[in-house]
Design a protein that fits this description.
Layout: H1 3-19, E1 25-29, E2 33-39, E3 46-54, H2 58-65, H3 73-76, E4 82-90, E5 93-100, E6 111-121, E7 127-133, E8 146-147, E9 149-150, E10 153-160, E11 163-173, E12 175-176
Parallel strand pairs: 6-8
Antiparallel strand pairs: 1-2, 2-3, 3-11, 4-5, 5-6, 6-7, 7-10, 9-12, 10-11
Length: 181
């Protein structure tokens, strides 16, 4: 499998999602965050978008989000039980496994995801993480877990011009939660 081709394609799709404001329906809004959805063009489910402004510089926000085994996300995200590196492709791309606990009182089984992840930095200072499901020969499913499937997903940590201590965070996710138990 050519991981570079897959990862570059996902990065382009996410950039397209970030520029296309059509068809989004708000499903939750607070003072700081807006979550919207629209039908996915990837599968029969939905594409979700979360947006908000965080009172921290983009690099600080990125430190909390970056997809690395020793990163902070495992500490604060209750939906991530384990995050492990399967293979480093180069300094911007890797194949990783994310293990999630069961959810909704056990209705959603614990999941085991294997994704190719591409980190991109843009000239304006934006940092993005782009991911999608891949098969990897060295990564068999964990026992008692359902292999999850992420369609193109990721996030953008974008600086806000004139506001060095603020970040516009946009995240896209479209996880197929097929009701396998």
């Amino acid at each position: 499998m050519n991981y570079r081709t897959v990862a570059d394609s996902v990065a382009e799709k996410l950039l397209g999602y970030s520029r296309d404001d059509s068809g989004w329906r708000v499903c939750k809004r607070t003072n700081d965050v807006c979550v919207s959805w629209r039908p996915s063009s990837e599968y029969s489910g939905n594409l979700y978008k979360g947006e908000g402004t965080i009172k921290a510089a983009p690099r600080e926000v990125w430190e909390c989000l970056k997809p690395v085994p020793d990163g902070l996300r495992v500490n604060w995200d209750k939906n991530v039980k384990v995050f492990e590196l399967i293979e480093t492709i180069d300094d911007t791309m890797s194949v990783c496994r994310t293990v999630t606990p069961s959810a909704a009182l056990g209705i959603i089984s614990p999941r085991d995801f294997v994704d190719v992840i591409l980190i991109k930095q843009y000239e304006d200072g934006t940092i993005s993480s782009n991911a999608t499901n891949v098969e990897h020969p060295g990564c068999s499913p964990k026992p008692h877990y359902v292999r999850g499937f992420n369609h193109p997903c990721g996030c953008f940590c974008a600086p806000i011009p004139g506001e060095p201590r603020k970040t516009h965070l946009t995240t896209f996710f479209q996880t197929d939660l097929d009701p396998q138990c």
